[in-house]
Amino acid sequence: MLRKRDYLTGLLTSTPDAIIAVDEHFHLLDLNPAATQVLGVEANEVIGRECSEVLCCQNLNRMKLCGTSSCPLQRVLQQKNPLPSEELILGRQEQHIREVSVSVTPVQTSHGDYAVFTARDLSALKVANQVRSNFVSMVSHELRTPLNSVHGFIDLLLQGHMGDLNEEQRTYLGYAQEGVQQLISIVQDILFMTRSDLGQFEIKQQEVPLRILVRQVVSGMQPQASKASVVLNADIPTDIPLLYVDPQRIKQVLNNLISNAIKYTPPGGTITISASAISEDWVMISVIDTGYGILMEDRPHIFERFYQSNQREQSRMGGYGLGLSIARLIVEQHGGTISFESVLEKGTTFYFTAPVYHGQDKEIV
């Protein structure tokens, strides 16, 4: 009968998943044969080195995570909570770069804290996922044309081009138009995400005055806020520096965050967009609401695609769980980070960083 230690050693040696132990100072403690094969390294050459020199974690948009608050190891070691699943790109050698599904588990011992980093190679699924994404993208694209036609004809009817309408007809057409607009938004968001998965998402950064951008967003979101009896405010300092961002994409982030806040803020509540310069290179933009807050069990899943809370107030308000995922994607594509703080029955603040414009002579780091 094998001893327990021999059994565990055999299990770690034979598993196809890469398993890596990292200490609280982000140095590699040990790794199994699958990890050395995935990374293209020898165990004795990398043990003791910093994980950033070996793992080189990136998100799926090729943004480096080492040294940032989005680093999975940093999040787990600081928060002492396991990370069940996240898709990343690992490796520094081109022939050994892998797209993997990662889980990270914190371990506390009398000799110190460390984390076990487990990665499963997703290369075998890549072709199937691309076929799926191509299909979804094609279907979404084909749906846009008829939906836009329906929306346009309803708009013509409401404007009276086909004759006068009574109040009841206007009401029902209004419901139909609202439903079609929601479908158009869903199709656009799904198309956006599938294009991102296929590597077809690009940003076009330029010099942008934040005060003007926020004013445009508030103006566009005001009808939705008024309908929900929520007050929408902007508090952007006059001396806030110019941003170096894609204006349409940052508008999309703000629209998604404000729309989310409106859903979860009761009538009479307020939503405030504020900003502050946190360094010479970065501005932090916040969307602050006085809403219901976010349940503890929902918080780890907030940025997951299609995640839906079971909270009564939230399920009553609808939504399909892509807005915050898209917001994070856009922010990270700009090199920034996004997070939130929430207090039940008092409100939630979502905040993200955006790069400052310095012209062409200074690189944002």
TrEMBL record:
Its EC number is 2.7.13.3. Residues 4-49 form the PAS domain. The keyword Phosphoprotein applies. The keyword Kinase applies. GO terms for molecular function: phosphorelay sensor kinase activity. InterPro entries: HATPase_C_sf, HATPase_dom, His_kinase_dom, HisK_dim/P_dom, HisK_dim/P_sf, PAS, PAS-like_dom_sf, PAS_4. It catalyses: ATP + protein L-histidine = ADP + protein N-phospho-L-histidine. This is histidine kinase. The lineage of its organism: Bacteria, Bacillati, Chloroflexota, Ktedonobacteria, Ktedonobacterales.
